[in-house]
Write a structure and sequence with these properties.
- Pfam families: AzlC.
- By secondary structure, the chain is mainly alpha-helical.
- It is globular.
- The chain is built from 13 helices and no strands.
- The relative contact order is 0.15.
- The longest helix is centred in the first third of the chain and has 36 residues.
- The protein has two domains: 166 residues, no CATH class; 52 residues.
- 80% of the residues lie in helices and 0% in strands.
C-alpha cells in the first residue's frame, strides 16, 4: 500500500504546483533572453539555471553583469538576494520529520520561494512527505531550466521583455504567493514594513541592499506582530 501511495503523493504535488509551474515559464524565458542579451551563450545561461536555481539572484546577476565579470560583486549580490533562504529553510526544515537526512538536504537544494510557499501550506494542513515535495520541486526545476534554455535560444527574437509585458511575470507570481498567505491586518503590516524599508534602501543605498532591507523589516514586523498576539492571548 505504501508503494502505491508514493506515486499518488508525487502527482498530488505536481497537481498542486501546476499553476506556478506554468507561471514560471515566461520568467525563465525572460531570464534566458536577458542572459543572451548580456552575451551569455545558451549553454552558459542554462548552466546558471541548473546550478544556481534562484531566479531573483540570477536576474540581479544579469543586471550587474559586465565583461569581464566582477565575480566578487556577483557573489555578494547573490548572497544578499538569497539570504532569505536561511529563514525559509529553517521554517520548512522543522516540518520535515518524514524526511531522511539526505532527502532533507536534497529538498533544501531545490528550495525556491514558490516551492517553500506551497510546502508551508501543505505542512499546515497535513503531513509533508518527500514524495509530495518532489512533486512540487522536480517539475518546477525542470521547467525553469528548459525555459531558460528556450529563452536564451530565442533571445534575438523575443527582444526587450518590457515590450511584450513578459517582465511582469516575476512580480505577478509573487503577488499570488503573498495573497495565499494573507491573514488580515497583520499580514498587511508586515508587507507595508517590508515595502517601506525596501523603497527607502533603494533610494538611498547603492546595489541590491534594498532586498536585504525589505527582508529584515519583514522579519522584524513579523516578530512584533507575533509577540503582540501572544500578549493579547
Amino acid at each position: 500500500m505504501r508503494r502505491l501511495a508514493i506515486p499518488q503523493e508525487f502527482f498530488g504535488g505536481v497537481r498542486a504546483m501546476a499553476p506556478l509551474t506554468v507561471a514560471v515559464m515566461p520568467i525563465g524565458l525572460v531570464f534566458g533572453a536577458v542572459a543572451a542579451g548580456k552575451g551569455l551563450s545558451s549553454l552558459e545561461a542554462t548552466l546558471m539555471s541548473v546550478l544556481v536555481f534562484a531566479g531573483g539572484s540570477q536576474f540581479v546577476a544579469m543586471d550587474i553583469w559586465t565583461h569581464p565579470a566582477s565575480w566578487g560583486a556577483l557573489a555578494f549580490s547573490a548572497l544578499l538576494v538569497n539570504i532569505r533562504h536561511v529563514l525559509m529553510s529553517a521554517s520548512i526544515g522543522n516540518k520535515m520529520p518524514a524526511f531522511s537526512g539526505p532527502a532533507k538536504y536534497a529538498a533544501m537544494l531545490l528550495l525556491a520561494d514558490e516551492i517553500w510557499a506551497m510546502a508551508e501550506v501543505r505542512a499546515g494542513q497535513t503531513r509533508l512527505t518527500p514524495a509530495w515535495y518532489a512533486g512540487l520541486a522536480v517539475p518546477f526545476y525542470c521547467v525553469w531550466v528548459l525555459a531558460s534554455l528556450a529563452g536564451s535560444a530565442a533571445g534575438a527574437f523575443l527582444g526587450d521583455p518590457k515590450a511584450t509585458g513578459l517582465d511582469f511575470a516575476f512580480p505577478a507570481v509573487f503577488t499570488v504567493l503573498v495573497m495565499g498567505f494573507w491573514k488580515g491586518r497583520d499580514t498587511g503590516a508586515v508587507l507595508a514594513a517590508s515595502a517601506t524599508a525596501a523603497v527607502l534602501a533603494h533610494q538611498f543605498l547603492p546595489g541590491v541592499w534594498y532586498i536585504a532591507a525589505g527582508a529584515a523589516a519583514g522579519v522584524a514586523a513579523t516578530l512584533f506582530t507575533s509577540r503582540r498576539q501572544e500578549a493579547c492571548a
